[in-house]
Each structure stands twice: as structure tokens, then as C-alpha cells.
Amino acid sequence: MGIVIFYILAAIVLACAIMVVTRKNAVAAAIYLIVAMCAIAGLFIQLGSIFIGILQVIVYAGAIMVLFL
């Protein structure tokens, strides 16, 4: 079951990373970046690093996106 979750999260990260680079609208790119960062946090949590996963969401998806928007 864990390997399936890993592949789903990895696919989300890859798809969102490609969408961040290819979007012309900066707000849409920021939304895709937030989704990618949350999926990366999910990968960290799956590895057992809950603190790093929470920091990933707070610092990147929270602070940087608020600063951008």
C-alpha cells in the first residue's frame, strides 16, 4: 500500500512541477507550486519525517506563496 501512495504522490509532484514551468499565468503557476509542495510534504511524512513535512508546508506553501500573492 505504501508503494502505491509513493507513486501517486511522485506523479503529482512531477505533473505539478511541469505545470509550474509551462504556465504563462503566474497565479496558476503559484497554485501548482503549492500542490507540488504539499505532495512533497506527503512524501516526507510517508518516510517518517513528520516534522520536515510540516515545515515544508508552513515555509514553502505558506510563507513563500503568501509573499508571492
What does this structure look like?
- It is a single chain.
- The protein has 69 residues and is mainly alpha-helical.
- The chain has 3 helices and no strands.
- Helix 2 runs antiparallel to helix 3.
- The longest helix is centred in the middle third of the chain and has 22 residues.
Keywords:
single chain, 69 residues, mainly alpha
Nutshell version of this structure?
The protein is mainly alpha-helical. It is built from three helices and no strands.
Strand content: under 5%
**Class per helix and strand makeup:** mainly alpha
Overall pLDDT metric: 91
Which series of helices and strands comes N to C?
HHH
Shape: flat
Report the strand count.
Answer: 0
Share of residues in helices: over 70%
Largest sheet: none
How many distinct helices? Answer: 3
Spans of at least 5 consecutive residues with low confidence: none
Topology:
Layout: H1 2-22, H2 26-47, H3 50-68
